[in-house]
Amino acid sequence: MADSGVLMVWxxxxxxxxxxxxxWYNRQHLSERVNVPGFRNGRRYRAVQGAPAxxxxxxxESAAVFASPAYAERQNNxxxxxxxxxxxxxxxxxxxxxxxxxxxxxxxxxxxxxxxMPAAGADAALTAWLAxxxxxxLLADNTNVIGALLAAPMGGCGDSGAASNETKMRAQPxxxxxxxxxxxxxxxxxxxxxxxxLDPTTLARQGVEVSEPGLYALVMALGQFENTPAPDPxxxx
Length: 237
Description:
- This protein has 7 helices and 8 strands.
- The protein is an alpha+beta fold.
- The protein has helices at 18-34, 69-76, 80-85, 123-141, 165-168, 188-197, 200-205, and strands spanning 5-13, 39-50, 54-60, 89-104, 110-118, 145-153, 179-185, 208-223.
- Helix content is 30%, strand content 36%.
């Protein structure tokens, strides 16, 4: 578990590029990322409550994948479609990190998400509470809770690392990375109930300094067995 990796990306999109963004994600980008050696799967969501408007996340074999030449090659050689979409990204939070807790199995139809900033010195106690108490209790109490994932950025909160060519094309700098907590559920109603149980007051008592929740519905999921990316549209070269 200690070396397992995950990539989480939350983002808003400029209104004029929203349709382009969704076509790119559905037809090319999700598959393109899953094709990178070491990536296991990917899934993307649209917000039904809270912000940002979109969430995507990917499981990888090891956090070392994020430093691999294959991943760097993909980030630094964007397709024509990617080049057209990137300037429309807004309010991006990107967490390339290590998994601290992983429970359950399968893919749910909805997801409750939190971007978390632990208080100084609270990392270990917060991890233990979520991994050993709070998350197992949620899965035990409700069979519509499919799974849970907690991750922390490899370089620590606030360390964005070196910018890739893709990142440089965005109109705004990314937000500093933070912890990410995702709880997959069978439906939006269950995700909402789960989110209410981990309210800001409860999280603050466990050492969370900042918590930014969001409620998301699944758009699509992709595994390695179906990961052939679509080409760029002809209009984009």
